[in-house]
Write the structure tokens for this entry.
Amino acid sequence: MSAETPDPVSADMALPPIPAKRYFTIGEVSELCGVKAHVLRYWEQEFSQLKPIKRSGNRRYYQHHEVLLIRKIRHLLYDEGFTISGARNRLDEAAIQDQENAIAAEQAHALLIELRAEIEATLGVLRG
């Protein structure tokens, strides 16, 4: 790696660990992700996946998965050089891939159950 190109792994390692909490305020997320609060509010408008819970006085509360998503967005924009549109497309592609992987895993599980039943039936005939 050249001195000008930051290593994405070491860049992520520079971020503090995410505490085991259910909800995080915008200030906490700002510190955890190395992004200013106004940038987080802007990203909410640009990335439909980012929807913090809003409570009294319109205070935002982010969940753990949203903090991870913000770190991913930050990485795509700041480290990989994507535009907002490009990062949005990459996240959409990743969501589609996750969906396809879940369907494939479900189909594989069903096939394994079917194979197990066939093997047990065959063993029953052999023992029979």
Remarks:
- The beta strands are 23-25, 53-55, 59-63.
- The chain is about 65% helix and 10% strand.
- Residues 84-127 form the longest helix (44 residues).
- The longest strand covers residues 59-63.
